[in-house]
Amino acid sequence: MVTPSRITLARKRRGMTLADLSKDAKVSLQSLSNYETGRTVPRRATMGRIAKALSYPEVFFEGPDLDELPADGISWRARSKTSARTLDAARAAGTIGAVLYDWIDRRFRLPAADIPSFTKPDPETVAGMVRTRWDLGAAPAPNMVHLLEAHGVRVFSLSPDYAEVDAFAVWRNGTPFVFLNTMKSAERGRFDAAHELGHLVMHGSDRECSGPEAERQANDFASAFLMPAAGVLGHMPRGAHVDQIIKGRTIWKVSAMALTYRMHDLGLLTDWQYRSACTELSKRGYRTGEPQGMKKRETSQILTKVFQALWANGTRPSAVAAELGLTVEEMNKMLFGLTAAIADGGDKHGKGDAQRRTLSLVP
Ligand SMILES: [Zn+2]
Description:
Elements: H1 4-13, H2 18-25, H3 29-37, H4 44-54, H5 84-107, E1 108-109, H6 123-133, H7 144-150, E2 154-158, E3 168-172, E4 175-181, H8 186-202, H9 212-226, H10 229-235, H11 242-252, H12 256-265, H13 271-283, H14 301-312, H15 317-323, H16 328-335, E5 357-358
Parallel strand pairs: 1-5, 2-4
Antiparallel strand pairs: 3-4
Helix pairs in contact: 1-5, 2-4, 6-9, 8-9, 11-12, 12-13
Zinc ion binds near residues 75, 77 and 199.
């Protein structure tokens, strides 16, 4: 049995066109198209060549239809710079990531989604409301990945194959997902997580979520959420020098550029001071990176605990991957930068765990 939609999904995941796959798998374009629409079923040997060309185990193509992430529910940043094929590939990777979460969800009790929805007020006010609801007061935001997870967001890594794609958020059947680009600095990772939270809170599943206006709102939300006005006004001097900004960024664990922007927004830097601070920071390498920044990226608490619990129970990561029809390499890419690599090299199948366990999470 072959599920046609899985061929299409795997092909998109690899960023291949029908013509690319036809060539690599030595299958005619017409036949391939028929397999993907379900008009005809490939013979075993043919399916073997297709699976090989796509680097997916054959068993992957035998699973049920997968619930694709909705294309119009995703807020891509810098859409114009990235090809539609790359975005499709990132979305396909996300669809497969969500399947891993479904698997986890059946075995562990994960936090329920607690993402408030606001349509009307401005991003600054919304950020304050989410902070109040989550009991954060005006303190610097804690680990953003842990925070999102504790409120029911499923956080995954955008595969390192798509370094040029920014983070994205999407609702799937009432569950919020965030895919982070873990190739950036830890500070930018925090900003991305807050930016995606902004989309989830302000743009939701059935509202306009893309375009420059939505991006501006999500950025303003992230800025206000990570750097509450009261804290910044209380700690940062008016007209601060670049050295003071570089020192100050450690309070909120944000990039020096993000703090500079926020200070200008709050009137602590004049237009002129803002522009010269940006120029100076660029010269010192703060536009492309974060010199002497956070030592470690923020990682996932859920994914780490799940794989530790599975391991303790004798279930190897390779067994999880095999059950999902994935290679361990493919699974590792979903977890890349969010948890230690989980490759185990073995193929011993572990015992299933009939009872769902509750993970104790510390936000
Ligand atoms: Zn965005």
